[in-house]
Amino acid sequence: MTDTIGKNLETVSDSDPALNNDFEPFILGIFCNWCTYTGCDQAGTSRMQRPANLRVMRVMCSGRVEPAMVLAALKRGVDGVLVGACHIGDCHYVNGNHKTVRRIPMISKYIQQFGINPNRVWLRHISASEGAELTEIVHEYVKILKNIGPNPFKKNK
After folding, report:
1. pLDDT, tens digit, for every residue of 74-103?
2. Is 86 helix (H, G, I), strand (E, B) or coil?
3. Rounded to whole angstroms, how far apart are CA atoms 24 and 145?
4. Coil/strand/helix, residue 33
5. Own/partner pairs, 10-14, CB within 8 angstroms, 24+ separation
6. Rounded CA separation 32/92 (Å)
7. What's residue 133's pLDDT?
8. pTM of the model
9. End-to-end CA distance of the chain, in Å?
10. Other Cβ atoms closer than 10 A to 110
11. Rounded distance, CA 149 to CA 137, Å?
12. Whether residue 12 has pLDDT greater than 80
């Protein structure tokens, strides 16, 4: 029974991109306060254009991003979750980003078991001075999510 549910969700989540011409993905960015969130702020104050698809949630450290947070976001219809962490060795809390690096593959495998494309969850290391890189990453992620299609858990309205 689980196999059929997974296959059904997979076919929905990897639908034909031609059918999704007007689809605009909703991305939840869960950003570390000290690096990625500051980089996002720097991009905004530098007037860098980033897609309006991104909504940002600030956490003090990416190590505080629990798998339940990511799964709840996907369950509620978010098309992609972008977790932003400090570069390895630059964590304000010493090893918080190491926890995140271990958790994201686990989350990806877990959602894949439900037929959800693992590309719906990304981890990127972005420092406070990398606002331009963040903007490029968001543009790239929007393109990938448009190809994947809408989240199968998204409520049809």
Report:
1. 999 999 999 999 999 999 999 999 999 999
2. coil
3. 9
4. coil
5. 10/115, 10/116, 10/117, 12/149, 12/152, 13/115, 13/116, 13/117, 13/120, 13/148, 13/149, 13/150, 13/151, 13/152, 14/117, 14/148, 14/149
6. 10
7. 95
8. 0.84
9. 28
10. 15
11. 18
12. no
Per-residue pLDDT, 111? 95
Phi, psi of 11 (to 5 degrees): -70, -35
Q: Is the dihedral of CA 54, 119, 132, 135 positive or negative?
A: negative
Whole-angstrom CA distances from 87 to 23, 31, 41, 82 are: 32, 12, 17, 15
Radius of gyration for the chain, computed over Cα atoms and rounded to the nearest angstrom: 16
Place of tokens 């956490």: 59
Q: Percent of the chain having pLDDT more than 90?
A: 75
Tokens matching residue 91: 């964590």
| Residue carrying the six token digits 């309006």 | 52
Amino acid at 90: D
Question: How far out from the chain centre does Cα 96 lie?
Answer: 18
Strands (E), 24-150: 27-32, 54-59, 80-85, 121-125
Tell me the per-residue pLDDT of 109-155, one tens digit each, with 9 for 90 and over: 999 998 999 999 999 999 999 999 999 999 999 999 999 999 998 87
d(CA 157, CA 155): 6
Which amino acid is present at 30? Answer: I
